[in-house]
Prior knowledge:
The chain is mainly beta and about 210 residues long. It has two domains: about 5-140, Immunoglobulin-like; about 175-205, no CATH class. Helix content is about 5%, strand content about 40%. The chain contains two helices and 14 strands; from the N terminus they run E-E-E-E-E-E-E-E-E-H-E-E-H-E-E-E. Strands 1, 2, 4, 5, 8 and 9 form a six-stranded mixed β-sheet that branches. It has a five-stranded mixed β-sheet with strand order 3-11-10-6-7. A hairpin with a 6-residue loop joins strand 12 (about 180-185) and strand 13. The longest helix has 8 residues, at about 160-170.
Amino acid sequence: MSSSILKLTVDRQNKTLVSFSGSVGSIPDCFQSNILSLQIQIVDPTGSFNPAYSIVDMNGFGLRASVGGAPTGTSGGPTPLALQDTFAWDSTNKWFTADLALNTTAIDNFIGALQLATAYFELNLTASGNRLTILQKPFALRAVVDELTSTAPSPTDQYLTRAEIISQFMPLKGANGQTFILVSPNGSISAELGIDNNGNLTTKILS
């Protein structure tokens, strides 16, 4: 099962995200163990106000999406924490779609005991063995509270609501002539408590 679709539109000339047709303008916080359903569209700026962008037909191109730690110039590193190198191209809507799994051991190790870690999201277009990086943005990669364990914590006592308090204590105000039965802590003795017409308390030991 994948999560809701994350719509991204990339201005390939300026290599940045833009808000376009419901897409987000930045990479939102992402969560360890989740799966991102990506919908990615490529646009060029038109130089006009309306429309500001034109959709690019990327038929014949491939797309790679990766998540990793801070990039370095060192050969062979860093190894991506998550990678999706097979996207489907929708020729009607002119966008790429694929799922990016964040449930990897590498991501678990990257976050470790931290609440969150800064990771990098990167997109690369591919054609004829060549690579063109069109986006690289930092984002917060967060740990999760619920790791789908089978044990639920036991609930604790809750504060009484106003209605519950009334239901508990209002019966102490009885009807005319009503008496109340009190029982000792060990349950061996009970007494009847009442009031007479002169305002005097009356008690009677019942057992």
